[in-house]
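ok trying again, last paste got cut off:
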Amino acid sequence: MTTAPMMEMLEAVQARAARAYELARARRALQSALWVLPLVVVALALAERPFEVSLLALAMMASVWLADWRGKEWGRALPAGLGGGLLTFGAAISARWVMGDCCASGAGCSDWCIPACATAGGLAGLLTVLDAGRAANPLPRIATSASLSAMGGAMGCACIGYAGAGAMLIAMSLVLLPGGIWLIRRPLGAEPAA
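nice, full thing came through this time. structure:
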C-alpha cells in the first residue's frame, strides 16, 4: 500500500471518531438540560403567564445544553448556575405559597414576594461570584451561572409578576457588578481562590 491511500483512510477514521465524540457530548448535554424540566412543570402549573414561562424554559434548557456541550469553564459553571436558578425560583415560589392568592392580585406582594426575589437574587449573585473566583478565566462562569440564575428566577417570578423579576435582577446585578469587575481585574498571574 502506498502512503496516500493510508493517509486518506486515517483521515476518514479520525473524522468518524470526531463525529462520534461530538455526538456523545451532545447526548450527554441533552441529559443535563433535562434537569430543568421539574422547574418548568412547577412554573407552568402556577404560571399566570404560561407563554413567558415557556420561552424562559426553552432558553434555560438551551443554555444548559450549550454550556454542557461546550464544556470547560462554561460547563463547570452549571452547578452554580443551576443552584442559583433553583434558589431564585424556589424563593419566588415559596413567597407565593406563603402569600397565597395575594401575590397574584398584587395585594401584599411587596411584603413577601418582592423581598424574597431580591434576597434570592443577591444570594445567587454571590454564589456566581464565589464560583467564578475559582476559575482562571472567570468570564465564562459568570456569564453561564448568572444567566441560568436569572432565567430560573424569572420563571419563578413570572408567577408573581414583573416586579419580583426586576427586584431579583437588580439585587443580582448589585452583587455581580462589583464582584465580577474585581475578578476580571485580578492580575493575570494571580491564583484563583481554592
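cool. The two ends are 55 Å apart (CA to CA). The longest helix spans residues 3-33.
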